[in-house]
Each structure stands twice: as C-alpha cells, then as structure tokens.
Automatic annotation (TrEMBL):
<dbReference type="InterPro" id="IPR003439">
    <property type="entry name" value="ABC_transporter-like_ATP-bd"/>
</dbReference>
<keyword id="KW-0547">Nucleotide-binding</keyword>
<dbReference type="InterPro" id="IPR003593">
    <property type="entry name" value="AAA+_ATPase"/>
</dbReference>
<keyword id="KW-1003">Cell membrane</keyword>
<dbReference type="InterPro" id="IPR017871">
    <property type="entry name" value="ABC_transporter-like_CS"/>
</dbReference>
<dbReference type="InterPro" id="IPR027417">
    <property type="entry name" value="P-loop_NTPase"/>
</dbReference>
<dbReference type="GO" id="GO:0016887">
    <property type="term" value="F:ATP hydrolysis activity"/>
</dbReference>
<dbReference type="InterPro" id="IPR050166">
    <property type="entry name" value="ABC_transporter_ATP-bind"/>
</dbReference>
<comment type="similarity">
    <text>Belongs to the ABC transporter superfamily.</text>
</comment>
<dbReference type="Pfam" id="PF00005">
    <property type="entry name" value="ABC_tran"/>
</dbReference>
<keyword id="KW-0067">ATP-binding</keyword>
<keyword id="KW-0813">Transport</keyword>
<feature type="domain" description="ABC transporter">
    <location>
        <begin position="16"/>
        <end position="247"/>
    </location>
</feature>
<keyword id="KW-0472">Membrane</keyword>
<protein>
    <submittedName>
        <fullName>ABC transporter ATP-binding protein</fullName>
    </submittedName>
</protein>
<dbReference type="GO" id="GO:0005524">
    <property type="term" value="F:ATP binding"/>
</dbReference>
C-alpha cells in the first residue's frame, strides 16, 4: 500500500491547531508559517532534519515558547502558557528530579494541580508505574534506573496527568537501538489501550512511520511544511517490509531531494492534495 496524502477530516474540530506559526529566537527564524491540525486520538509526528524547528514547535504547543506570528490553540482556546492539558516527555534522562523516588516523581505534578489528595496521587502514580512495566520500582531513585526505565517513569508521570495531548520530544533518541525499539512497541501498546492524543517529534523517518498515524514533513531551516501524509498502515511489524522501505525512501527524497525548488505547502494546498490518493502527487 502506498503512502497517502492526508484527507481533510470534514466537520470534526481539531484538538490542537497550529495556524501560520512562525517562531523566532532573536534574529534566528526557527519555523515559518507552519500550520497543522491534531485530532483526538492522533499520533501526529513532526519530522524533519536537525534544526528545522520541530522541538520549537513542540515547545510552542506546550506553551513554553510564544509564536512571533500565527497561533496555537487547544480545544479552541489559545495556548498562552503551559498547562496540565499538555504534558511533555523530553529526550533527556535528567528530566526526573534525582532526589525523588519513582513514586514521588510521578506523584509530583499531580500534587501540583492541588486537585487530588496525597493518598489519591500515590494510588494514581502506582497505577501508572505498573502500566509502564515498572511495578516494584516505586521506591527506586532515578540514578539506579537504566535510560529506558527513566523514560518509562517520564511517560508514567505524563500519562498520570491524563493530558489532552501528550507531547514527546525525541523521547527515545538517547536509547540504544534495542531499547528504543522496545519503547516504541510499549508506546504503541499503551496507545492501543488508552487512545491518547500524541504529538511526537523525531528526525528518524523509520520512527515516524512506526509511531505515527499522520506525519508532517518539515523542510530545513527555517522549518516550513513540505507535506503531510497518512502512515497508519505502518508499525513495528511492518518495519523492514518492501512497502516500509519504499515509504522511507520516498520520505527521504521528499525531505532531501525535492523535485524542483523547495516550496512550502500551505494548509489549503495540503487539503487540495488530498484529492490525490497517491504519494507521488506530493509537491
Ligand atoms: N533557545 C534557543 N535560542 C536560540 N536559538 C534557538 C534556541 N532553540 C532553538 N534555536 C534555534 O532554532 C532553530 C530550530 O531549533 P529546534 O531545536 O527547534 O530544531 P529541531 O528540528 O528540533 O532540531 P534537532 O532535531 O537538532 O533537535 C535552530 O536554528 C536552533 O539553533
């Protein structure tokens, strides 16, 4: 089956919407006029080469960075700062305070909301720790855990908050290949059970195909939308198949050897592309 350009999701309001987002750091323009819609239950991947502004877009969705132009909204309301409806899992293993146990790490943001008692927070934390396969490690401290286990704690901490959108910034990039694969598998399993909404950043084409059901391809610096495609037909089981390899090659070509001058596709143009089911119709 070939990759398909994304079809418009007629009538359904997006959960998270980025409209014409340009991000700047001083005189450095990180992204230019980027638009995309994330729907409930999506595993939406931002894919592009290093420096194209993927992390910056994720930080903007999290409310840590304000767009220079354009806007980001969640549930129809503008994002104007961080909130418990959007929780981020970062790549870095040091995202867990080292003086807190696994249980305390997962409880911490729950307690910060002041919406649950200490007892409830502990129960909820223990539940999510077990869900990510770390039952028995509640009282361990981060420095005694492997990189993969630390990322599991970060995922448990995020899911315990039951955010509207789980934001993941290259969460498995610092792991060895086998652990990375295992974590991708676990994330897929959790998604099958819980159907949370995921916004996931990676520069790995393979990871994007395995993790995502929709992928936004960004051009190099400053990041602009090159294309958007459906990738729900791929998973770890299909990785390595001829179709998977062909999709990988096509995405690679689109990112690095586009035919003709690099052109950013606008939101409206991408909706127009949906009329063509064939990946080869991409700009
Ligand atoms: N805090 C910052 N201050 C100044 N410039 C920044 C800052 N963060 C990012 N940039 C710049 O913005 C651009 C986009 O960076 P960003 O980290 O968002 O890209 P990325 O696609 O996530 O890259 P990578 O895959 O390497 O993490 C780069 O040119 C980067 O140097």
């Amino acid at each position: 089956m070939s990759l398909q350009i994304v079809s418009p999701t007629g009538g359904i309001a997006p959960l998270l919407r980025a409209e014409g987002v340009s991000l700047e750091y001083g005189s450095t323009r990180a992204t230019h006029n980027v638009s995309f819609d994330v729907y409930r239950g999506d595993r939406f991947v931002l894919l592009g080469p290093s420096g194209c502004g993927k992390s910056s877009l994720l930080k903007a969705a999290a409310g840590f960075v304000r767009p220079r132009a354009g806007s980001i909204s969640i549930n129809g309301a503008p994002v104007d700062g961080p909130g418990p409806d959007r929780i981020v899992v970062f790549q870095e293993f040091d995202q867990l305070p080292p003086w807190k146990s696994v249980l305390e790490n997962v409880m911490f943001p729950l307690l910060m909301t002041k919406r649950v008692s200490r007892h409830e927070a502990a129960e909820r934390a223990a539940h999510w720790i077990a869900r990510v396969g770390l039952g028995g490690f509640e009282h361990a401290h981060p420095h005694t855990l492997s990189g993969g286990m630390k990322q599991r704690v970060a995922i448990a901490r995020a899911l315990a908050m039951q955010p509207d959108v789980l934001l993941m910034d290259e969460p498995f990039a610092a792991l060895d290949a086998l652990t990375r694969r295992k974590m991708q598998e676990e994330l897929g399993r959790l998604w099958e059970e819980l159907r949370f909404t995921l916004l996931f950043v990676t520069h790995s084409i393979e990871e994007a195909l395995v993790v995502g059901n929709r992928i936004l391809l960004l051009s190099p610096h400053p990041g602009q939308v090159r294309a958007e495609l459906n990738s729900h037909q791929f998973d770890l089981a299909s990785a390595g198949s001829p179709e998977f390899q062909a999709a990988t090659q096509r995405i690679h070509n689109l990112l690095f050897n586009p035919v003709g001058p690099a052109q950013a596709a606008t939101h409206a143009e991408r909706a127009g592309q949906a009329a063509s089911p064939d990946w080869s119709a991409a700009p």
